[in-house]
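Problem: given the chain below (124 residues), write out its structure.
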Amino acid sequence: MSDHLTRFREFRERMNARIMEVGPLETKRFFALDTRAYDAGTLDVPTKELLGLVASLVLRCDDCVTYHLIRCKEEGLADDQLREALHIGLVVGGSIVIPHLRRAMATLDDIAAERIPGEAGGEA
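Solution.
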């Protein structure tokens, strides 16, 4: 596992737990709302994760982009689908998105490096 992804996952889990420990009810409710928004509904989970990815890129939130890239891969989306979604984010967000697009591509490469060739759901 890449250092970047390991640090991201560990920090996110640790800080989310800390926020839940000390946060007010409204914060806990917001976290629950955020989680439930990505549950299957009229739109399936992979589509919702793609929407989250594009919105995160346009809003220039690298942590959110990383999270949604991981979730998109967990939901079985292929790299070419993710690259197409990232392209939409670039078109919508404009040139200011380019540094975040670079980091998104590096993260996608890190995720791909974790896959064992021939692994179910992974690209060889």
